[in-house]
Amino acid sequence: MPDERYGVATHAQVIGTGPRPALAIHCMLGSSEMWGPTLGPLGEVISATAFDLPGHGRSGDWSAEGAEPGAYQTLATRIAASFIDRPVDLIGHSFGASVALRIAVGAPQAVRSLTLIEPVLFAAAKGSEEWAALRPHQDHLDQMLAAGDHEEAARRFVRDWGAGQDWDALPERHRARFVAQMPIVANVTPANFEDPAGIAREGGFEGIEAPVMLIHGDASPPIVARVCAAIAARLPDVGTACVPGAGHMLPLTHAGQVSELIAMNLERS
Predict the structure, then answer these.
(1) Which pick of 101, 126, 139, 179 has the fewest CB atoms within 10 Å?
(2) Is residue 1 pLDDT above 80, yes or no?
(3) Strands, E, within the chain: which ranges?
(4) For the domain that residue 91 is a member of, what is the CATH number?
């Protein structure tokens, strides 16, 4: 049965039986199930708790109605942190990587190693050419979300940030779930672009002493590589990796390569 954490029935599972505790945070529109192929091969080294974010997988729903912009990121961070009782190998993908980075900046002593896969903290690259190129596309998506055109917004979101599947080829239940999750996407957008929590504040990244691995695909939207470079430039102990042929959903499409990169980072800590 899911545990209630910060008012949300939160489903979690443990992948692996290794001696090192780990915590894995999935992407927007994903679920904890996606971590199996990536973390399973590391099961002799880590015991990874993977939980479903609010409104995802088998966790309880979350309503964006009346919530302040960026409130969802704060809730997700609190839930994630509630699973940590000693230093962990912290792993996050996309939105989950932003949450992991927020934890690492706020409580660096809680992190043994940090692996960030395709982080979408766009604020870290604010002012770059890639940020400026992305902004009009995001503005268009924001307009659709504000107008309540959630189906078209979901179609575009999956096109840009999905695993390359055609929207119309997806099972109807998946399309319906993605449409229902669009208000969450709308709430998260300000956290990605404006960083109200101050994750990218001066001195924040610099205070992370744990070894960090930043991973992105060479077929991902260009903003992701720029975000990775901007974050890496400010970290004292960092490795970076670009996976050939991989897009944004590389934990699903290139699980073996991602698993090997996580293993390399574990060895450094």
Answers:
(1) 139
(2) no
(3) 3-5, 8-10, 12-15, 20-25, 46-51, 88-93, 111-117, 212-217, 238-243
(4) 3.40.50.1820
